[in-house]
C-alpha cells in the first residue's frame, strides 16, 4: 500500500467507525477494518481515533504479536512539522523513591539488631 504523509489536523477528522485513524510514534494507522477484530475491543480504538494514541498503546503493554500486526494497518507517517520525538521505551521506575526509603529502613533496623545479637553471643561465650 502506498504510504503518505499526514498532518495531525487531517487525522483529527478521521475519528469515527467508518474512518478510524490514529497516530502511534509518528506513524499513522487506519484501523477501520480492524475495529471488530481488535482483542481489546473497538471502543478503545474509537476512543483514540483522530488522536495520538502512543501513550494509550504503550500503557497497555501490547505484545510483540500486536506490534507485528500493526504494520498491516500503517498507512503513512506524520509530516515533519507535526512529528514529536519518539521516546525510547525505557523501563522507568517511578517507585524508585519508595524503594530507596525501604532499603534505608531495612539497613537502619537490621544493622543494629545484628550487632546486638553478635554482641550478646560474644558476651555469652567470653564471660560465661
Ligand atoms: C494498530 C494498532 C493496534 C493493534 C494491532 C492492537 C492489537 C492488539 C492485540 C493483538 C491485543 C491482544 C493482546 C496483545 O497481543 O498484546 C490487544 C489488546 C488490547 N489493546 Fe490493542 N492494538 C492496537 C491499538 C490499541 C490502542 C491504540 C489501544 C488503546 C487506546 C489498545 C488497547 C488495547 C487493550 C485495552 C487491550 C486488551 C489488553 C488486555 O486484555 O489485557 N490497542 N491489542
UniProtKB/TrEMBL annotation:
Cell location: Membrane
Xref: InterPro entries: Cyt_B5-like_heme/steroid-bd, Cyt_B5-like_heme/steroid_sf, Cyt_B5_heme-BS, Cytochrome_b5
PROSITE patterns (UniProt xref): CYTOCHROME_B5_1 (PS00191), CYTOCHROME_B5_2 (PS50255)
Location, primary (coarse class): membrane
Superkingdom, natural source: Eukaryota
TM ranges: 109-127
One MF annotation (Gene Ontology) recorded for this entry: metal ion binding
Domain annotation Cytochrome b5 heme-binding: ranges: 3-79
Protein name: Cytochrome b5-like
Amino acid at each position: 500500500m502506498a504510504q503518505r504523509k499526514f498532518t495531525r489536523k487531517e487525522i483529527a477528522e478521521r475519528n469515527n467507525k467508518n474512518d478510524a485513524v490514529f497516530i502511534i510514534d509518528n506513524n499513522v494507522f487506519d484501523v477501520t477494518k480492524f475495529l471488530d477484530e481488535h482483542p481489546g475491543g473497538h471502543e478503545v480504538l474509537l476512543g483514540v481515533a483522530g488522536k495520538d494514541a502512543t501513550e494509550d498503546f504503550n500503557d497497555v503493554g501490547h505484545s510483540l504479536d500486536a506490534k507485528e500486526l500493526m504494520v498491516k494497518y500503517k498507512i503513512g507517517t506524520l509530516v515533519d512539522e507535526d512529528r514529536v520525538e519518539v521516546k525510547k521505551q525505557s523501563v522507568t521506575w517511578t517507585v524508585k523513591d519508595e524503594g530507596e526509603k525501604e532499603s534505608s529502613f531495612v539497613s537502619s533496623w537490621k544493622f543494629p539488631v545484628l550487632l546486638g545479637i553478635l554482641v550478646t553471643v560474644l558476651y555469652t561465650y567470653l564471660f560465661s
